[in-house]
Amino acid sequence: MTRIAIDAMGGDHAPHEIVAGAVWAAQEYGVALELVGKQDRIEQELDRVCHEGFYSDCGKAGKQRRIRIDTSKLDIKITHASEIIEMGEAPGQAIRKKKKSSIVLAVDAVATGSSDAVVAAGSTGAAMASSLFGLGRIPGIDRPAIAVTLPTIKRPIVVIDAGANSNCSPEMLYQFAVMGATFSKNVLGIEHPRVGVLNIGEEAGKGNELAQHTYKLLEDHQERINFVGNIEGKEIFLSVCDVVVCDGFVGNVALKVTEGTSQMLFRMLKQEFKADLLGKIIGLLAKPFMKRIYTKINYEEFGGALLLGVKGITVISHGRSKAYAIKNAVRVAKEAVETGVNEKIAKFYEE
Amino acid sequence: MTRIAIDAMGGDHAPHEIVAGAVWAAQEYGVALELVGKQDRIEQELDRVCHEGFYSDCGKAGKQRRIRIDTSKLDIKITHASEIIEMGEAPGQAIRKKKKSSIVLAVDAVATGSSDAVVAAGSTGAAMASSLFGLGRIPGIDRPAIAVTLPTIKRPIVVIDAGANSNCSPEMLYQFAVMGATFSKNVLGIEHPRVGVLNIGEEAGKGNELAQHTYKLLEDHQERINFVGNIEGKEIFLSVCDVVVCDGFVGNVALKVTEGTSQMLFRMLKQEFKADLLGKIIGLLAKPFMKRIYTKINYEEFGGALLLGVKGITVISHGRSKAYAIKNAVRVAKEAVETGVNEKIAKFYEE
Q1: Quick check: A299 and A259 in contact, CB under 8 A?
Q2: A274 — contact with chain B (CB < 8 Å)?
Q3: Are A20 and A54 in contact (CB under 8 A)?
Q4: What is the pLDDT of residues A252-262, one digit of tens each?
Q5: How far is CA A191 from CA A222, A226, B349, in A?
Q6: Where are the alpha helices (DSSP H) in B158-208?
Q7: How high is the ipTM of this complex?
Q8: Which residues make Cβ contacts (< 8 Å) with residue A350, sequence separation at least 6?
Q9: Residues of A in contact with B236 (CB under 8 A)
Q10: Residue of B257, B280, B294 to mutate, testing the A interface (most A Cβ within 10 Å of its Cβ)
Q11: Are A191 and A242 in contact (CB under 8 A)?
Q12: Average pLDDT estimate for A343-348
């Protein structure tokens, strides 16, 4: 049985929602858990999930329901961690100083083979740093990158790097392409995933030096990568490719702009409906439809980003993750383990 | 009377929609025009606007109406241009080769003082290159930049650079901050505009080298710039600042992602409403509300981007611009002329 280590103390709603989501996933996807954090807090939360239950916060057009899960029937192991890395701390320093922190010990669980993957919703920097130092890099990969799956008009698209590396070289972006395509094929099940470079125009000579050189590098390796050229920001959602490659700075800005734009549009629509009584009625009628869209594009549905390039599976969840998001993050971790995405990335470089 | 030169041949809907929009603006805002392009085509279009009329394509929640304008009462000058620069041409080469092209002659009209500003909807690169070579730079500015005004929850925000410069230095971004703030204050009427650096986190040390150094530079010049720190992608629409500074690559990606996200959300909502009969009815009822939002966030409403840093006013419109967008672009050009935004940028560097 696949076992997923969870940093139970990371994220805005830890440990309550984290433990709830992990247990929910254990029941739904049949995985074993290793909950890492303050033992007494975790035991308390497990007890709560079992007796009081918790509220599902998302999914199915936002229909809330109370969920109670009998934890005694699940394979749950607790690993005590006496320290917590807070959001503001410098990641590199923090993981060296706090060797008994929940994130460091959760990654250790994967390194020692006690678990198969780790899910973390706290500091992204700390999750990356502890994974990099605790698990090491896959040979052939210079820098791990964050792969995020986004909804589009048709099928989901992978954006890599979504924020791990602010300063990149063309060689790094080429490696991101390899990792993103491997993920798309194996975890999302897309045959011959089409890879594009995020750029500000279609033509080969467009964009900054990084985009131009990456274009050339990918063009030169078309026998191994299904390269389809440059992709503009507005095309990300049009299913013209399956993997978008960019540096972590641009990727992170792009993802957050998507989030900000959706939030603004939904807020504006709500405001518009409030203008008069008729509007209020129509708004009420339209609400379930809007909720369904909101659910479709919600980051919680996608369950977090995968840190690719380390020798182990690390899924990084949104800091605001509640139980539903954590449940999906565990699903992503399980799929990544079972499809052997890391082994396939490693194999690319062996051939 | 302020006279605006129009590249009548540029853009997907030239010359029909361009001429119509310019004439519409002349009537509505009381400006004189200099229409630059093939004389016979322009005369033909003017005749059409006068007799057959044209359709307003946007504004007021998408209510289409036919507009006929008596051009004989307006101050309209035609300047013949025998050449056109097409969208695919390399801008630098094209403007040197086609000295009789509509964009080059429209910029010339500003350079020689025959007009006060130029509006162009064709190739952005050609508009930039001809403006840079035809008008020259404002002393103190190394590279002109594109300022785009975006809707937010509260008041509009300026994003600079939106695509003129893919490779930037911190000094360039500092100059963009100066130009953006001057534009925000003088054209948008925002007192002490708050300037932020587009970044992937709030803290000073976040982001790539460019963002980090720009942060320091702006911090060191706080007596002249109202610098409020880093702004994340999702905060652009939350009115936490009035000017967002970034390199043209990131700015262009951010803008196009905004466009793409809105398009996808509206499409998804439409699809969702189509699911059943009840949905279709609710969708029909909700349509005017959605249209109003669409109008609010529509690029056509904002009338195009201003190229700041050249000695003259150049407004670059979306290639897909129709009459309504061109009308608004002329308004932006007029406001930029009358508020003397260039003189104020120049003054900043004289002090």
Answers
A1: yes
A2: no
A3: yes
A4: 999 999 989 98
A5: 15, 10, 57
A6: 170-186
A7: 0.88
A8: none
A9: 257, 260
A10: B257
A11: no
A12: 92
